[in-house]
Write a structure and sequence with these properties.
Blueprint (H helix, E strand, L loop, with lengths): L1 H9 L6 E7 L8 E3 L41 E5 L4 E5 L21 E6 L4 H9 L12 E13 L1
Antiparallel strand pairs: 1-3, 1-6, 2-3, 4-5, 5-6
Pfam families: YegS_C
Protein name: Sphingosine kinase 1-like
InterPro entries: Lipid_Phosphate_FormReg, NAD/diacylglycerol_kinase_sf, YegS/DAGK_C
C-alpha cells in the first residue's frame, strides 16, 4: 500500500476542468463570480447509452419533485483547475481513518468540497499524513468550503 502511494505521488496526475458552485452563507469569497448561463457544458460526450441531443427525453417524475428553484438568480462562483483531487462530502469521514471534511455535518443542508491543488511532492506527503486528523484542510494547497449546488466540468 505504501509503495502504491509513493508511486502515485511520484507520477502525480492533474485534472483540468472547472467547478461552478453556489456557496453556503459565509463562503461567498471562494472562487470567481460566474453567471449560471455562462457555465460551460462538458465537452466530453462519451455517453453511448443516453439519448442523443436530437432525441426528446420524456422523464416521468414520481412523488415529490422538490421546490421550484431558479438557478439563474443564484450567486454562482467558479474555480478553475488543474486539480490534484476534488472531494464532495456530507459527512466528515471518507473512510474509517480519513477525516476528509472535518467540518461536515450530515444534516446542515450543505455539502463540503475539498479541492487539492498541485503542490511540491514533499508538501503532498505532509498533506496525506494530515488526512487522519483533518489537518490537511489548513494547507495552502487545499481549498475547503461548503456549498449548496455545484456543476463539475472537464476540459
Amino acid at each position: 500500500m505504501l509503495q502504491q502511494a509513493v508511486q502515485r505521488i511520484v507520477h502525480l496526475r492533474q485534472y483540468n476542468g472547472s467547478i461552478s458552485f453556489v456557496p453556503a452563507p459565509g463562503f461567498e469569497a471562494y472562487g470567481e463570480h460566474a453567471s449560471y448561463n455562462n457555465i460551460s457544458e462538458p465537452t466530453n460526450h462519451h455517453n453511448k447509452c443516453g439519448p442523443s441531443p436530437e432525441e426528446p427525453v420524456n422523464i416521468r417524475q414520481h412523488g415529490y419533485e422538490g421546490p421550484d428553484i431558479n438557478l439563474e438568480n443564484m450567486d454562482w462562483r467558479t474555480i478553475s483547475g488543474p486539480f490534484v483531487s476534488v472531494w464532495l462530502h456530507n459527512v466528515p469521514w471518507g473512510s474509517e481513518d480519513t477525516k476528509a471534511a472535518p467540518d461536515a455535518k450530515f444534516s446542515d443542508g450543505y455539502l463540503d468540497m475539498i479541492i487539492m491543488r498541485a503542490c511540491p511532492k514533499l508538501s503532498l506527503l505532509s498533506l496525506m499524513s494530515g488526512l487522519s486528523t483533518g489537518s490537511h484542510v489548513n494547507s495552502p494547497y487545499v481549498v475547503y468550503f461548503k456549498f449548496r449546488k455545484t456543476k463539475l466540468s472537464s476540459i
